[in-house]
Design a protein that fits this description.
single chain, Aminopeptidase, 4 helices, about 140 residues, alpha+beta
């Protein structure tokens, strides 16, 4: 069940523990999915949030079906339609091949690499997703604003 931005603080703690982070930078919001027992199975975190853009991060429970199209589309509708953001930026570790493969399938464009951007020397791949690209994306087909 999609619960959106309900239980934000709890969702943020859960996502941080899954991502191995102390916390995203700056103001942030969450968009979540829970299972039938009300346990989190997937959370998108929108960090460094301002009126135009945000960084997007994903945390999911293995086998939790977090990448279900209805959840992903609802999360992006939340960002681009409800919040009115013009851009999402997906900073992705070079050592995360799954994320590097999945981001383009969501509609993100690979924009570059920040070499040795992480404290451990890992590269940071920058992916961008613009509002106008999302409005023409397959998840939006047939939907009105």
């Amino acid at each position: 069940m999609i619960i959106g931005n309900d239980r934000k603080d709890e969702a943020l703690l859960w996502a941080r523990s899954r991502m191995g982070l102390e916390g995203p930078c700056g103001p942030c919001l969450t968009f979540s999915r829970v299972d039938k027992d009300n346990n989190f199975c997937a959370v998108f975190v929108f960090s460094d949030l301002n009126e135009y853009s945000a960084c997007i991060h994903y945390a999911g429970r293995p086998g939790g079906h977090g990448f279900a199209p209805d959840f992903v589309a609802a999360a992006f509708d939340y960002a681009f339609i409800t919040l009115g953001l013009s851009r999402l930026t997906g900073p992705t570790r070079g050592s995360n091949p799954l994320a590097l493969r999945i981001a383009p399938k969501f509609g993100f464009t690979h924009e570059g690499v920040m070499r040795k951007a992480f404290v451990d020397g890992d590269d940071c791949h920058i992916f961008g997703f613009l509002r106008e690209d999302y409005l023409n994306h397959k998840w939006r087909k047939g939907k009105s604003l």
